[in-house]
Amino acid sequence: MSVEMLSSPISEPAPAHARPAKGDEIDLGAIMAAIKRRRGTILGLAVACTAIGVGASYAVKPTYWAEAVISLNVRGAAITESASVIPDLKVDNSIIRGEIDILTSRTAAGRVVDSLGLTPEPVSEDAGLIRDGLQRLGRSIAESGLFDRAAALVGPSEVVDGIRAALARPDVPSQPVSSDPREQMINILLGNVSAANDGRSYSIRVGYSAASAEQAALVANAFANEYLQMQRDEKVRETVNANEWLKRQVQVLREDVLAAETRVQKLQENAGLADPARGGSAVSQQMAQLNVQLVAARAAVTQAEAKLRSGQDMLRTRGSIDSAAAVLESPMLQLLARDQTEIKRKMADLSSQYGDRHPTIIGLRSELASVEQRIRDEMQRTVQALNNDVAIARASEQSLQNRLRQLEASYADGAKVEIQVRQFQREADAARELYQSFLQRMKETGAQAELARPDARIISEAVEAPFPAFPNRKLFAVIGLVFGLFLGLFIAFVAENLQRGFNDIDDLEGETGIPGFGSIPLVRRGRKGNPVDYLVEKPISAYSESLRTVQSLIHSVSQSRTARVILVTSAVAGEGKSTFCASLTRQLALGNQKVLLIDGDLRRSRLLEVMPGKPVADQADAPADLIEVLEGRREFGDAIRVDEATGLHYLATARHEQNPQRLLMGRPMQGVITQALRHYDLVVIDAPPVMAVSDALVLARYADASLLMVRWSKTSRKLVNDAVKRLRVSGVKVSGAVMTMVDLKKRAKGGHEDYSYRNPYYAD
Predict the structure, then answer these.
(1) Which of 158, 164, 220, 561 is the most buried (most CB within 10 A)?
(2) Strand order across the 456-460 sheet
């Protein structure tokens, strides 16, 4: 009976499929399949890292945050019309930055420590012990060479060098801390306090971090209150100092007034003048009028000269435009001053939104330069006008002085005395006027000390936070989850790239260049028994159908000549090769095909273990052994065994041969193959593994086709490739590859599609 299993030996293996280089394209389907296969690892790491994050959030000492808001005053309350000793703040970005520095200064922290009576807590030695232990561990790792071996995998890097230097760093003695508890507490406060401004308002947010919500709110409010108190204390201090200086000046001026009035009174008494305003002649009256005019002229000269000097000083030093407008009394300067202030305010507001190169900022800067140039021009013009006023005032004074000298020359000696009296009287009046001015200012500064107020106010006090600011347990959990997912994906990626075996017949076919003839499902013996028996018990199972697929693929590959001798081998032992041979030949026998299965593994035969049936107790009644046939001690027909369930004929051996090649390479083995072809349509040889021994290479000379068995997901890729290379170098024509012991359930869960899993046509 002729069986067209394979028309001819496969002369050459199918060409290897072109495998895309890694990185040339991204297969999203493969990525999702890999994630599905490793989802247990990914989800496990995600859950573990999330638990670690949550546990770490409970292990870390919580800290609370409290924040108070201070607003700098831009509208001052004018209780009195007198100017303050320290003017109110002109708020801008630089002023706000300076106030933030004052708010978080060491002085402010010291005032908070004193006001609250804070003292540092005793420092635990656990932190120092942990730090020392970590340093010793780092040095041990560096000295043992473990870090160098791990760094060799990464390659040279500045980061690796930095870590190596940090691990090998010797112990550094800790810096001595201040023994003053107050200084220690100040350092603690400065390390936990912060103040900031968002650049869009005049508000300053001052916050403090502490181990308790109560302490955080208490210290934050204390910083805000002490800042306001510092401002008020500064104003009071400066006002009191100014008032003390004014008191001293008033005392001196009082003495000057008394001395001047005494001198006038004595001169009047000596000259016999009861009233200095009483004159006896027209010359006296004229002189009196001229004196009055001369005093006014001198005052005008003094005032004009003072304005001129102030204007020249401001023009030379480019002083404040506000001060220049007030001194020079120029309406134009006042208008320009307002324009300058408005432009600067706009630039300050827009600088936080735009960069220095923004067209709006550049335009405002150009407009500011134009206004400043106009201010300088107006100041020069005003100074020139003041210079003219001084010249006019001096000329007027000089004219009055000359006129007065003329009257004095024509006046009698009595008149000279009267003039002297009037001169002294004028000096006394001037001293009295100056005294009254200083006295008035002294009273004003005395009142200002009581009305001193800070340039800011608290618009929101710090309150106790219900939850700690750190650690944020939700954030820790999210970070742990994200880290776990990324770690799981990384490990899954590494595991996929480092996997030992083949998970897909297409992958096997693409890497080895051998046509894939199918995948044989795994039959678990504990549940379904021996796969060889399962084939008979479940003829329409996935296992049986996979064997039929291999059979049909072998038949469809060639079309020219019948292949009657098929060699089945593998790379290493444990690939399910013998089970596959027994199952395939039993199925062919069930189809009424004359098949002979020859056990070609004379070193470690397993065919009798795989085939069903009980061992024969009496060796005399047992069939002949294949080794006995090859040695010429028994006939070929005496060694044939028959499988009662399927009618399969097979030739096995019950003992092990240490040197099988002496039998396989001689005429006896060729004779066995020749006799087998006379009586059978198909001969299947179960050969030993290629990488273990060279017997398969010897047996391949008798075969028309060769099949390579590869265990699913277990056999190393390198071993498979080495086996294929060895077969090809030896001239063996590898017709196809079969993947054995495929776990359909794991394969389906791993994302590999397979028609065999949960197929309604199968009765497993």
Answers:
(1) 220
(2) 193-196, 203-210, 64-72, 456-460
- Retrieve residue 226's tokens: 């002490």
Q: What's residue 559's pLDDT?
A: 43
d(CA 182, CA 235): 27
**Could you count the other beta carbons within 10 Å of the beta carbon of residue 120?**
16
Structure-token pair, residue 741:
């012991």
Within 10 angstroms of residue 262's Cβ, the number of other Cβ atoms is 12
Decide: 240 and 442 in contact? Cβ < 8 Å.
no
Identity of the residue numbered 539: P
Q: Is the pLDDT of residue 617 over 50?
A: no
Instruction: For residue 684, give both structure tokens.
Output: 């299947």
* Whole-angstrom distance, CA of residue 280 vs CA of residue 335: 54
The values of phi and psi at residue 736, to 5°, are: -170, 170
Query: Which residue has tokens 């008020």?
Result: 232
Neighbours of 547 (CB within 10 A): 23
CA distance 520 to 577: 11
Is 503 or 68 the better-scoring residue by pLDDT? 68
The C-alpha atoms of residue 495 and residue 511 are separated, in whole angstroms, by 19
Residue type, 670: Q
β pairing state of 203-210 and 64-72: antiparallel
Per-residue pLDDT reduced to its tens digit, 66-101 = 899 988 875 554 445 555 545 555 557 788 888 889
Residue 676: exposure state from Cβ atoms within 10 A (0-12, 13-18, ≥19): buried
Rounded Cα distance, 119 and 649, in Å: 98
DSSP strand E in 283-335: where?
none
Indicate whether 710 pLDDT > 90.
yes
Q: Copy the structure tokens of residue 104.
A: 């978080």
Q: Amino acid identity of 413?
A: D
Adjacency order of strands within the sheet including 734-742: 516-521, 734-742, 705-711, 565-570, 682-686, 595-599, 649-651, 640-642
Task: Give the residue among 171, 170, 168, 172 at the shortest CA–CA distance from 143.
Answer: 168
Residue entry with tokens 């065919």: 607
In Å, how far are 245, 709, 711, 741, 757 from 576, measured between CA atoms?
Answer: 111, 8, 7, 7, 20
Quickly count helices (H) and strands (E) in the chain.
Answer: 27, 12
| β-strands 456-460, 64-72 pairing | antiparallel
Q: What angle do CA 482, 484, 487 make, to 5 degrees?
A: 110
DSSP state of 591: T
Residue-wise DSSP of 622-670: SPPPHHHHHTTSS-TGGGEEE-TTT--EEE--SS--S-THHHHSSHHHH
Contact predicate 713/576, CB 8 Å:
no
Question: What is d(CA 577, CA 690) in angstroms, rounded to the nearest whole number?
Answer: 12
Question: Model confidence over 325-367: pLDDT tens digits?
Answer: 544 566 777 787 787 788 877 777 777 777 677 788 888 788 8
Percent helix, strand and coil across the chain, each to the nearest 5: 60, 10, 30
In angstroms, the CA 653 to CA 609 distance is 11
pLDDT classification of 232: cutoffs 50, 70, 90: confident
